[in-house]
Amino acid sequence: MAIDGAVGVSELPATKLLRRGGIDRLLQASGRLVRAKPLGALGGLLIVGLVATAVLAPVLAPYDPIRIKSADRLQPPSLRYLLGTDDFGRDILSRVIHGARISVFLGLGAVGISTGLATVIGVLSGYYGGRIDTAVQRCIDTLMAFPGLVVLLTIMAMLGQGLGNVILALGIGGTAGNARIIRSAVLAIKENQYIEVARATGCRDWQIIVRYILPNIAAPIMVVATLGLSVAILSESSLSFLGFGVPPPTPSWGAMLSGSGRTYMLQAPWMAIFPGMAISLAVFGFNMLGDALRDLLDPKLRGRTQGRA
Amino acid sequence: MFGYLLRRLLLLIPTLVLVTLLVFSIIRLLPGNIVVLMMSEQGYASEQAKLEQMLGLDQPFYWQYVSYIGKVFRGDLGVSFWTREPVLDEILRRLPVSVELALLAMFCGLLIGLPTGIVSAIRQDSWLDYVFRTSAIGGLSVPGFWMATIVIVAASISWKWVPPMRYTPFVRDPLANLSQLIIPAIILGFALSASVMRMTRSMVLEVLREDYVRTAWAKGLPESAVIARHVLKNAMIPVVTIMGLQLSTLIGGTVIMESIFVLPGMGKFLLDAITWRDYPVIQGINLFLATGVILLNLVIDLLYGLLDPRIRFG
Lengths: 309, 314
Known about the structure:
The complex is a heterodimer of chains A (309) and B (314). Chain A has 16 helices and no strands. Chain A has 309 residues and is mainly α. Helix content of chain B is 77%, strand content 0%. The longest helix of chain B has 36 residues, at 87-122. With 314 residues, chain B is mainly alpha-helical. The radius of gyration of chain B is 24 Å and the shape is globular. Chains A and B meet through helix 7, helix 8, helix 12 and helix 15 of A and helix 1, helix 6, helix 7, helix 8 and helix 11 of B.
């Protein structure tokens, strides 16, 4: 990657990919992923399934996820209701399918905020260094002293329940850790000779950041974002489970496990089993893919995971 | 060593000042509708002026902070709106439950994570390594609260066992207390073991590549001697840092387990405080936990230096 940068990378990898016959290259890259990291590819497949479910939710779901049907309450799984019904007679399968939508939307929103903020903070802190860096790093130390779930709960206690507030809380909560990772990536890039050359040829700071730093930290940003999605989905489900996340009747996976899912867990275990499986599969997918991407994209980590001494 | 300690302690000052500023802001940043709810829903005060006085908002901003810091130094974290008891007393009363759960969980986590991590590294890329690594990512993906729910459902259906609703303190009946805490501790420990396993594996792998290990192989030592005498001895030192890195997960996990298994710890208290909109308690618990995490991390760093003579406190 560093060598690419030396000859002048002026666009982000995604645009470059599209320019050189996008689909073919994407297929090639996927083929490489399957061969090199089969488990990562399995993760990728799970994510494709999750996103497809989220997009096609209204078509795939056999019933309305929030319509109450008291005659059919607490039905066990059957041909009519494949995953059973809850205490309001709502179809669990339809709710799990629509829950994918909430998770994807929420994950993307939260990761968008946390990665965006972290990139700005990490790049500025790493690139400029000196006092700015010291001050920013002290702030990050401070934020990281607060346990993640406690921060989320506190932010929710201040903002009140709601999907938008959960996204904001998860976004803010994930920023500090990500900023630190992105900063260290910038520090590693900054020492390269091509940055020195760029500066010597009269490039301004913002030009160096946009043309040389950002394209070269795209890989760690992608890894951070992928793993961030798993953390966001898991954290949302914890918040909703504890009753401080997405309010009812929105079919969030965590919320389905909370409240009545807990009250009826002995009479109707399917109410708790299936949403939990959905959370685990989605998080598992993002974790597998994120791990594989880290091994493939980060040359420094690549050496560590291969070969035996 | 003394100079290093002094520098670390000096660095603590800005961090702690920032922590208190953040915690102090919790009440100051409350949106107006929440303040209205504190009066209408919880009935903490009949009029806004009275509530502002209770929250200490009736004074100039800088004075509010100075007086807050003064109180914190005297160990006064305010009074709970709900229980009307000093917040610090309430926290200290519940702390032993959370600490016991956290220690038990950490023990379970190390018990599962260390051996699997070591085996995984020594037999890198074998089927056993793949099984352990995949289960570790699985362990990181399964939400603890879901695992707890499944355990409770399975135990009640198979053995007609339900978790007791009343907490028994350790001093009254150690056996009853442990039997109550062991299940949440194992579930939490299982989740922790995933990270412990992954970190142990990468540390052992790193040591396996060291020159002195190659020398040990070259002089013909049997595998058991190389692993026990040269690899594990050096790889186990950084494991101390795992505990520091896992603190946040551990505390989050105790909040969830205390909620599911109805244990009267600090996590349960935080959740109750959020329900009751008891902001002095939310503030106090945040300050207490952040300060605790910072101090524990300092202790772990120092311990690490003491255990590993190669680390110089320069």
